[in-house]
Amino acid sequence: MIGCLCLHGFTGAPWEVEPVVKKLKKNKDWLIYSPTLPGHGPGDDLKGATYKAWIYAADKACAELFKYCEKVYVVGFSMGGMLACYLSARYPVEKVVLLGAAAYYVNPPQLLKDFKIAAEARLKGAFDNEDPWYQFYSKKIQETPLTAVYEFTKAVKTVRPFVKEITIPSLIMQGELDGLVPVKSAEYLFENMGSREKRLYLYKDSRHYLCHGPDKKRVLDDLERFLKNENKPRIQGGNET
After folding, report:
1. What is the pTM assigned to this prediction?
2. How far from chain centre, in Å, is Cα 209?
3. How many angstroms separate the CA atoms of 59 and 86, rounded?
4. The domain spanning residue 87 has which CATH number?
5. 100-128 pLDDT tens trace
6. Which of 7, 32, 121, 141 could lock onto 80 through a cystine, CB 3.0 to 4.6 A?
7. Structurally, how many domains does the chain consist of?
């Protein structure tokens, strides 16, 4: 059996990688696991969460999959992408996919553009509590405790050195309009991985939530083809075509 661990990002939840989970679950002989990291579940408090707890939870989830599966893939989004790097260096993972992985974070120029779009829409009354832009800024910018942000930075700094130890086939996926994780993060991962087989795909119309944005279908198709060895020829480091 093939197992696939899907890890969400900082302040997020499994819904961030839910489109990946749904697509891969169509493979009936695959076991897909998408855990909720400590402090991120309903009723949980990020103020009490620590970077060590996030790393431990990801480690434990990966170890559990290996108990039931002959092969294990890891897909990580944002901070989950960095945890995926750690797991790929520590365990005999077959393949790893990094979605907007936060080796570096906050792209100020794009973030300012996004804020302007959000502010203009807000003034026009375009937002309500269900609007994804409203939810995004409310959660990521306004409500996140500073203590949790500090733990996030420690998590990234702790697992970043493991990037060079990755030697397995790797797919790095990045939105060019990402206001939280800059393109240089993806470029850093691509340049520093020890993998002989590695790909970097950039999506020109996507922001941070690659699995929920305008390039969603291409992102999911590229991801599945990579995991199932069905990739079409692409230019390493090139834009999505």
Report:
1. 0.85
2. 8
3. 9
4. 3.40.50.1820
5. 999 998 765 665 566 566 566 555 554 45
6. 7
7. 1
